[in-house]
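To whoever is on call:

I kicked off a structure prediction for a single chain this morning and the downstream step that reads the tokens threw a length-mismatch warning. I double-checked the sequence; it's 339 residues and nothing unusual in it as far as I can see. Pasting both halves so you can look.
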Amino acid sequence: MTTARTLLQERLISIVKRFPGRRILVVGDAIADQFVYGVISRVSREAPVFILRHEHTETVPGGAANCAMNLVSLGAGVSLIGVVGEDVAGRTLVERLETAGVDCTALLTSKKLQTTTKVRILAGQLHSTRQQVIRLDYEGAPLNSDFHEPLSKSILEEAQTSDAVIISDYSYGVASQQVAGIVRDTATSKRIPVLVDSRSRLAEFKGFTSATPNEDEVEQLLGKQPAEVSDLESAGEEMRERLGYRALLITRGSLGMVLFQDAAAPVQIDAVGAREPVDVTGAGDTVIAAYTLALASGASFPDAARLANYAGGLVVMKRGTASVTGEELQNSVLHSEST
């Protein structure tokens, strides 16, 4: 082990140790991730399909709520701003969040809305690993302008005590242009970073600090597919400039990440951990949580990206919508061959 490598490990670990002193505000679409487990018993007489004998059902926070769970797991104080329905899924979601320590004071509930719920059916033989066979989505009606004022008011209040803000957009309406504008203006006045994770609307979020799109999202936004690494580097820098970000972190799955910064060469970061993930569900929430928390703790963009890479490598080895702890992150930094 070289001296430089040891110094990098020490620097990364010192950043993780500062996580508990930070407070992060998450604004976005809270989703109930539901996992239905069962055993395949026989083929139905009614149709050529398997009959699944139900074992158990688990509901966990997804989307912006999963991002909040990851931040809490890493040691941060977290406030979540979003909207859920006054239904079973919504109540279960809030209960799981509050039990974990997420501040849900500004999480709005509405009788007019259905909580967005993604039901994953996992099936298998009696002694085999359950595999996802289908996903069923229950999507509530789009949010109307009635929610913009209370959401904006909560953002103005919660941002006063926050060290960074994450916009977690799954295109269900919380991160409207009005709400995003309030986040940007408030964060700018407080001089705190705002990170964006948007599944399909990143082009609409301009002028923020950074974002964490995957390679496919970059291709969709720019309308072209990079054939070589040099093409990806050109595309990443073009995208960063177009969005007006200080930095852009593109995730590439088993190929790692590439960080783009203003007036700096791209930083290639190799993936850590196993090449074949167990489950990538919610991995993007983990990546942006670690990335944001590191920046809020005084890390440079490259060091924050490295910690996000470690966090992502850990969470994809866990089944379902999962999170990473600060202790796990430190151990990964200490024992990985990629530091």
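Update from on-call: the warning came from a stale cache, not from the record. Cleared it. Sanity check on the structure: Residues 260 and 266 are 5 Å apart (CA to CA).
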